[in-house]
Amino acid sequence: KESFTNNLKQWYQRRVRGSQLGLLTTRRDIEEGADIVMVKPGMWYLDVVSSIKASHPDQLVAVYQVSGEYAMIHDYATKSGNFKQVVCEALFSMKRSGADIIISYYTPILLEWLSQSGGVLTP
């Protein structure tokens, strides 16, 4: 049985199979003067981030790491014994794809790591 929330998703969430419609609407948003465009969930759409940045290099692109991504990364990072390395690699991949802004549940720990390392984040 579908919930009310799931029915609402059809109005703001794009289909997984193709990115073309999302890229078209993003282009329209930019042409209409959007200051920032946001891609979410971040990890699964890094190809879209890269495409947006390639076609609009001056546009600010934000990536939002949703709670499911956070939970998945946190679980693996904890079990792997390389917590910082796994978290950093996930976030660095967003930056490499072209993200100017990364919104993540890891922000508090990232700020702690940055303060401990003099402002340079290394895994």
Could you explain how this protein is built, in words?
The protein has 123 residues and is mostly helical. 57% of the residues lie in helices and 10% in strands. The longest helix is centred in the C-terminal third of the chain and has 15 residues, at 83-97. The chain is globular, with a radius of gyration of 16 Å. The termini are far apart. The chain has helices spanning 4-12, 20-31, 46-55, 67-80, 83-97, 107-116; strands at residues 36-39, 60-64, 101-103. The chain has a three-stranded parallel sheet.
What's a quick, concise take on this entry?
The chain is mostly helical. The chain is built from six helices and three strands, in the order ααβαβααβα.
- How many beta-strand runs? 3
Q: Decide which structural class fits the backbone.
A: mainly alpha
Q: Helix content range of the residues, please?
A: 55-70%
Total helical segments: 6
Q: Biggest sheet, in brief?
A: 3 strands, parallel
- Report the mean per-residue pLDDT as an integer: 87
Low-confidence stretches: none
What does the secondary structure layout of this molecule look like, with pairings?
Blueprint: H1 4-12, H2 20-31, E1 36-39, H3 46-55, E2 60-64, H4 67-80, H5 83-97, E3 101-103, H6 107-116
Parallel strand pairs: 1-2, 2-3
Could you list some keywords that capture this structure?
3 strands, 123 residues, mainly alpha, three-stranded parallel beta sheet, globular
